[in-house]
Structure formats: C-alpha cells, structure tokens
Design a protein that fits this description.
This protein is mainly alpha-helical and 199 residues long. It has two domains: 55 residues, Orthogonal Bundle (Arc Repressor Mutant, subunit A); 124 residues, Tetracycline Repressor, domain 2. Helix 4 runs parallel beside helix 7 and helix 6 runs antiparallel to helix 7. The relative contact order is 0.11.
Length: 199
Amino acid sequence: MPAGLPTRESPGGRGARRRILQAARVLFAQQSINATGVAELAAAAQVSKRTLYQHFPGKRELVLAYLREYEQEPALGPEGVLVRSDLNPRARLLELFAAAAADPASPRRGCPFLCAAVEFPDPTDPVHELAAAHKRAFTELLTGLARAAGARQAEQVGRRLALLYDGAAAGAIVDDGGAAATEAYAIAAAILHEAIDRS
C-alpha cells in the first residue's frame, strides 16, 4: 500500500469521511483520479463501499470534496506558503517555487486542480468549473502579492507566475529529479527581479 494512507483508529465507523478523503489525496496524487476505482478507495480508507457511498453519493462528489479540502486547508498543498504571515509578499511568491524545488515529490502528479480539469474536460462539469475557478483565484492571489511586493505590471507578473507554476507542476509528472521545479524557481526569481528591482 502507498505511504500516507490512513489508519483506522477504532473498530467502529468513526472517522470514515476523513479516511476516505485522506485516501483520495494519496491515491489521486499517485495514480490519477480516473485510474483510481471506488473499490480501491474504499479498501485504502478501510471502509465498505456502502460506507463510502453514504458519505459521497458518487465519485464526482468525492472529487469535489477532495478539491474543496485543498481550498479550505491551503497547508495541504504547496500553495499554503502564499498565506504565510511570516514572509513578505516577494518571499511568499519565491517560496511557492522553492518549496516545490526542495521537495520534488510535491506535487507528485502536478497541481491537483489542473489534473482534475484534465480528467474532467467538459467545461460545464462541476469538477472542471471548480478547478477553473480555483486557478483564476490563484492567479489573482499571485497578482495581489506581486502588487504588494511593488512589481510593475502586477497583473502580467501574476499571470506569468501562475503559468510558470502550472508548467512546473505539469513537468513534475514526468520529471522525477525535480529539475522542472528548480528551473521554475530560477525563472520566477528573474521575473520578480525584472518587475521589482528594475522599476
């Protein structure tokens, strides 16, 4: 079984929802949403399929809850560094890329929102809509931090950093050595130097 899967602390059904979501985070990250079956999720979460369906009527509902958990708890993913109060805006932007470079296993299969959008390609699908809305909010957050850091053309900087992050996250899927994240950090530093230090 993959590392990071939940353990059942009591023989009863308590904590089933938490275990299902934890199993989804691990399995979706390691092998994709579509490649992960409901039976496999139930086994990894140590629940019956019936219990899984009691919490999530279908796989789409589970995927939506999985993505919302990342939104509600930023610390679960690399984007959590963007809300750290101990770093100034510029340092937060760089830390987004530094964290990925320091830990090439995160994100293991790229950004969970991008992966979900790819696996649910219909733009009217609720999963795709949630992923697209998150990526827009992510770009706005980067833009706001760039503006707070004193960057010229903050909107352009925010869009470029979002595109760079998404590219590095996609590159992480096929780059076991973490070179994509390391290169992305260097490019992000150059973008911020050009936009802030040369203003």
